[in-house]
Write a structure and sequence with these properties.
The complex is a heterodimer of chains A (about 90) and B (about 200). With about 90 residues, chain A is mainly α. Chain A has a domain at about 20-75. Chain A is built from three helices and no strands. In chain A, helix 2 runs antiparallel to helix 3. Chain A is elongated, with a radius of gyration of 21 Å. Chain B is rod-shaped, with a radius of gyration of 32 Å. Chain B is of the alpha+beta class. The longest helix of chain B has about 30 residues, at about 50-80. In chain B, the strands form two sheets. A six-stranded antiparallel sheet of chain B has the order 1-10-9-4-3-2, with no helix packed on it. A four-stranded antiparallel sheet of chain B has the order 5-6-7-8, with no helix packed on it. At the A-B interface, helix 2 and helix 3 of A face helix 1 and helix 4 of B.
Chain lengths: ~90, ~200
């Protein structure tokens, strides 16, 4: 009986999928850090009345946001269907 | 018989287990947990997926904040009214090499007027451009210095000489009238001339 249920252990996320999720997480963290830096530069430019610097900073922040959303919503592992190890 | 019951019970548990995934780990209170309640430490943890969602929300917030700051700065600049001319009290008595604190353009904005040794008058907003500590006039070196993080500004231009301040002090335009009174007549943001 033991051997029968040995293969029915709780489902584990496959290693490849874990790597993809981890990569997504790391990329999102890096994008957030870049956006923090852009926000501080935007505030600094605003306070100094350097208006010509503002549009590129906003665009850069928007690009970062778009990449982040793309990674989160559309960047999936090639095989998204979950499987149980040993089945 | 007992073995069959056990098999079906285990199968039931595994069936419930298969239903749950990372998305509903907090809701994964399967029937067996009602029968055998126990503390699930994992439920208190944030899953990777939840953290990714949090990062995406943060990213949206940062983007919107940058846009809001820029919009507000441009809006304020386009709606800026000319500041009123205000006489700086006691400025007639200000000796060379000394400084005087006053408030401009509103009572909430501290400012400093410096009468340099060469006879010139220079006025600046007193808030350091690093973290808004009040700067003071250092007579010995004729510099405006910030005591908080040791930033230094040129007294004649307001430019940063050393330390962490990222931009010059806000400059107040002044006018010395015939009777010796010094009037504040306007203000420009630090670094605006260079932008």
């Amino acid at each position: 009986m033991d051997s029968q249920y040995e293969n029915q252990r709780p489902r584990v996320t496959p290693r490849g999928r874990t790597a993809v999720l981890q990569a997504k997480l790391v990329l999102l963290v890096m994008i957030n850090l870049a956006q923090l830096w852009i926000l501080s530069a935007t505030i600094e430019a605003s306070l100094a009345r350097h208006f010509s610097e503002l549009p590129p900073l906003i665009v850069a922040s928007g690009i970062c946001w778009f990449i982040g959303i793309t990674i989160l919503l559309w960047w999936k592992p090639t095989k998204s269907k979950r499987e149980t190890i040993g089945r | 018989m007992n073995s069959k019951k056990l098999d079906s019970a285990i199968e039931k548990v595994l069936k419930e287990e298969r239903k749950s995934d990372e998305r509903n780990v907090r809701k994964a209170v399967a029937p067996q947990q009602r029968d055998f309640p126990y503390e699930r430490d994992g439920e208190a943890q944030v899953t990777r997926r939840e953290f990714c969602n949090f990062l995406a929300i943060t990213s949206t917030g940062l983007f919107l904040s940058a846009g809001a700051f820029a919009t507000k700065a441009i809006y304020d600049a386009s709606n800026a009214e000319s500041l009123p001319a205000t006489m700086i009290e006691n400025s007639i008595d200000l000796k060379k090499g000394e400084a005087l604190n006053f408030r401009y353009p509103t009572e909430a904005d501290p400012a400093i007027l410096v009468h340099t040794k060469d006879g010139g008058f220079h006025a600046y907003g007193q808030k350091c451009t690093h973290l808004a500590c009040p700067v003071y006039f250092e007579k010995k070196n004729e510099r405006l210095e910030c005591p908080c993080h040791e930033g230094g500004f040129d007294v004649r231009t307001g430019n940063v000489l050393y330390g962490p301040p990222p931009r010059p002090l806000d400059k107040i335009q002044i006018e010395v009238r015939e009777n010796g009174e010094v009037w504040a007549i306007g203000m420009t943001a630090g670094g605006q001339d260079h932008g």
